[in-house]
Design a protein that fits this description.
- This protein has 523 residues and is of the alpha/beta class.
- The chain has four domains: 2-127, Rossmann fold, CATH 3.40.50.2300; 148-296, 2-Layer Sandwich (Alpha-Beta Plaits), CATH 3.30.70; 311-404; 416-521, Arc Repressor Mutant, subunit A (Orthogonal Bundle), CATH 1.10.10.
- 55% of the residues lie in helices and 13% in strands.
- The protein has 23 helices and ten strands.
- The chain has helices spanning 11-20, 37-47, 63-73, 88-96, 109-146, 152-161, 189-192, 194-204, 240-252, 272-283, 286-289, 311-322, 326-341, 348-368, 382-387, 392-416, 418-430, 438-445, 449-460, 464-480, 487-493, 499-510, 514-521, and strands at residues 3-7, 30-34, 51-55, 78-83, 101-104, 171-181, 211-216, 221-228, 256-267, 293-296.
- The chain has a five-stranded parallel beta sheet with strand order 2-1-3-4-5, with helices on both faces. A five-stranded mixed beta sheet has the order 7-8-6-9-10, sandwiched between helices.
- Strand 4, helix 4 (88-96) and strand 5 form a beta-alpha-beta unit.
- Helix 14 runs parallel beside helix 16 (392-416).
- The longest helix has 38 residues, at 109-146.
- The protein is elongated.
- The model has no long low-confidence stretch (mean pLDDT 86).
- Residues 3-120 form the Response regulatory domain.
Length: 523
Amino acid sequence: MIKLIIVDDEKSTREGLAQFIPWNSLDVSRVECAGSGDEALRLAEQIRPDIILSDIKMPGMNGIEFAVLVKAILPDCKFIFLSGYADKEYLKSAIQLRAINYLEKPVNREEVKRAVSLAVRAVREEQVKNAENNAILKEKLALDMAGMRTPLPDILQRLQQMNKDISSYGNVITAIIKIDIQTEPSTDIEHNHKGLIYKAIDLVFDNPVMYHLAGFKDNQHIVIHFYGKGVSHRDFPPTIISSLKKTIEELASVKVDLFMGIGIKVDGVKQVRESYRTAALALQKQFFIGANQMVIYEDRVDNGKTYRLDAVVIKQFVDCLSECDKDKTLRFIVHMHDEIRKHTELPIKQVKDIFCSMLLELNTFATGYNIDLFEKQEQVYFWDIITSMSSLTEIQNYMVDRILVVFDNIQSKNSIGQNVFMIMQVIQEHYHDDHLTINMLAQHLFLTPTYLCMIFKKKTGKTINQYITEVRIEKAKEFLKEERVKLLEISRKVGYQSPNHFTKIFKKMTGMNPSDYRERHYL
C-alpha cells in the first residue's frame, strides 16, 4: 500500500490533482491533501506517506523547509516538487533533498503521471531492498542469540533496534528444525527455497501471543526462537510438524522430511543459549525415531536399565549366522532395532560401532561360502557405509538387505549346485566383456567346456549362451533408463561391439528395438 500527500496552498491545484490523476493505476492506494506546510507536516506524522507531491512557494513554511522536516522523520519519503518559478536556488535545494522530479506549473497531467510512476518504482525497489536487509539482520540476530561469541549487551541492543525486545515478552523456547529436500539431493536450500521456507514458518507459527525469530544455521538446519508471555511447550502440538511439512511442500513444490528438536523454556534472552543447547540434544533423537517427528527435550533420570551394546550382542548375532537360520537372523536385527529405539540416551557413535562390527561378521560369514557381500568393483569400507546413514531404521534396512543377499545366495548354491552358481556369478561379473565365451568360463573355473555346458543345462534348463544373452539384455534395460546414455555406448557396456547386432538380439528378446523400449518404458 503506497500512500501519497498532495501539498499546495491553491485549492484548485490540489483538488484537481487528487481528482484527475488515475492513482490506482499508478499503484497509489491512498491520497490525502493539505493546504499548507504545517498541516502537511501533521498529516505526514500521522499517515507516514511514501511519496509527497508538494508546491514549493507557499505562505508560511515553504516546500523546501517542509521537506527538510519530513526527511528528518521519514528519510525514505520521495518528493516531487511543483513550482511556478524557475528558481535556481529552489532547484538546487530540491536536488540536495534528492527529489524524484521538479515540475513547473501549470502542471501537465502526463508529466505528473510519469513522475509519480518513477517515485512508485523507487519506493517498491527500496521496500524490496529493506525487506532483504531486514531478513538478513533477523537471521544473523537469531543465530547470534544461539551462539556463544556475541556479548549479551550487544544482542539486547540489536533486539531493541529491531523492535523485538524479547526481555519484555517473558519466556523463550528455542527449536532447531532439520530439513531434507527429498526430490533434490544436492539442493542448495539457501538459494532455491529459503524465502518460501521462511514464509511457511510464518504461516504455521502465526500466533497472536507467541512471536518468533528464525535463521538458517546452515543448508539443513533452521534455528527458531519462540517468545511470548504465555509461551510454553503446549504451543507445540504433535500435528505442528506435519502442518509445516505440508505448507513447505505446497509453497516450494518439493518433497521434504523434517525433524524438530525443542529446547527447554527459559526466562528471557539471557538464558536462551541453554534452550538452544537442549534443542540440539533433542534434535539428536531423529537418529532413533526417524523423520517427520518432533521431540521436546526432557531430563531423563538414569534408572540403571540402559540397553547394553557390547560383545555379547555381537556373539548373539554370530550364533544366529552360525545356525544358518535366515529368519532367526532377521528377527534378531529387528528386535535389536526396536530395543535401541527405546533407549535414545545411547550415544549414536556407539550404536553405529556395534552395527559396523556386525557387518564385518556378516562379511566373514559370507566369505566362508565364497559369497561377495558387495559388488567386486566396489571399494567398500564398512565404517563409511554405516557412518553415512542418518537413522537407526536406515541401518536396520541395510543390514536386512545384506543378510537377505547372503542367505539368498546360499540358497541358490544349494539348489543349483556350487559349480552352476559359480558360472552364473562369473557371467554376472563379466557380461560386459565381448570376449566372454564358454572356453573363457571353463578356464576361469578349471572345468572342461563340455562338462560346464552339461551341468548348466541340466540344472537350469537353458544353455550358457542363452543365460549370457539374458543377463546382457537385462543389464541393457537398466542402462536404457538413463536418457543421456547413447545406444552405441549401451551396446558396448553389455558386451556387443556391433550396435546392429545388439539391436537385433534386443528385439528378438523383447519384441522391440532399444529406442522404442526406452520411449515406451522410461520417457
